[in-house]
Design goal:
There is one protein chain. This protein has about 140 residues and is α+β, with helices and mostly antiparallel strands. Helix content is about 30%, strand content about 25%. The chain contains four helices and seven strands, in the order H-H-E-E-E-E-E-H-E-E-H. The chain has a four-stranded mixed sheet. Strands 2-1-5 form a three-stranded antiparallel sheet. Helix 2 (about 30-40) crosses helix 4 (about 125-135) and helix 3 packs across helix 4. The longest helix is centred in the last third of the chain and has 11 residues, at about 95-105.
Length: about 140
Amino acid sequence: MAGKKRGAKNPLPEFRNPQLADALQTQDMAALAFALRHGPTVVPLMRPGNRDDPRDVGEIWTYRDPNTGDVALLLFSDAAHKPEALPAHVALQSPAGLRAFLGAHEAVITTVFFDIAGPHPMQAAPADLIAALDA
């Protein structure tokens, strides 16, 4: 038993989606759709979720342009790509959760940015992402 820890906890989840990062690097919309359907997406949070309630992922943060009123959803392939100026908390959003959020807010969100600060930013319309998630 030497070297083994008693009661070792499960490792914390990695806040990244390598398939999404690869799709952004190649700017391939089909690969982006596949990555969104089959893996989590990192979302910034206004309010973190309740740790005692796995159904509560928190409140997803969106950006409202003060000049136009346009609302953008910022998504990330890796929490390391989130700019420091955004809220500190992040969550992993499942494909179903992302689809539900986009569906509920499609009329308000004007655009979705992926890895807005790089290394390979990409932009899409909410309707295109909903179609990709539904495929």
